[in-house]
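I need you to check the entry underneath: sequence plus fold tokens. Let me know what the token row says about the fold.

>
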Amino acid sequence: MKGKISKSVSVLLSLFLLVSMNTVTFADETSDEEKLKGDFNMDNVVSVEDITLLQKYCATLISLDDENYDFSTADIDGNGEISITDATILQIEISYSSPSDPTETTEPTDPAETTEETTDPVETTEEATDPVETTEPTEPVETTEPTEPTEPTEPTESTEPENDYYILPESDIRLLNMSDIRDLSAEELELARNEIYARHGRLFDTDYIQEYFSNQKWYDGTIAPEDFDYDVLSETELANVWFIYYYEHNDYYMIPDSDTRLITVDDIKYFNETELEFARNEIYARHGRMFVTDYIREHFENQKWYSGTIAPEDFDYGVLSETELANVWFIYNYEHEIY
């Protein structure tokens, strides 16, 4: 498996190198005589629609003989073959070039369920009570939209001696991702969430939480819960508090904005195989699709935001935007490249 993953990582790095070397040519770089590379629908723009067409071609849903499309420039990586790798290169390029809002797409074939599904932390715009401790909510905290994470560093295991370590050592300086918390127990999640407050000297009313932090050598608790100023939390810390809280309470998304922007490898590189499957199917779940596969259905039924009312055979894939469809295939192709 390690060898397979290493090979896949090499392939992905090669894709980024191809993109950085301007393998893909866009409209403002071509002459009138030169065909626009990647413009398969011949509208003089390289867009998500062209990615979708190439993906359909690779899935043998479109023929080379279809006169409505021109795939003569589809060999993006120049290896003499047209493959899903060429579509991935196009998606990477477009995702870094801020494309305009996509229009609705026509119905694709369904890569849902086991060819399917995903998750994402719910965006909160309301004032919420402070999810500190769990058993005793305290005064309300004003939540602001957290900034997007830059490339998260690979989570590392603490090498600190016993009683002088953090469950999540970097929860004060970077946004957490699923790989940081997926293996934590319910108790560890609760402590990890309160650890963010503990760094700022907050005391705790719940006995076992207070006892845990009092045993940590780094902890200096001096501020009573009722006197704690939540404004000392940075946006990153506050976002992480809610990220853990929503995960604890089954009210989160794997990729919160996979319905509004093209995702990249950075969004999914820390996901395991099951999480990739959830992330892909999450795009369908937002639109009320139900699922046949037991563990996928159970995952979404446990999410508070989910309202599944449409049987798979009745689901209209035309409701997916071009962005959503591109992201479904991007995750699907990544899954089959890595696993």
Observations:
- The mean pLDDT is 75.
- Strands lie at 117-118, 128-130, 138-141.
- The chain has three domains: 2-95, 128-248, 255-318+330-338.
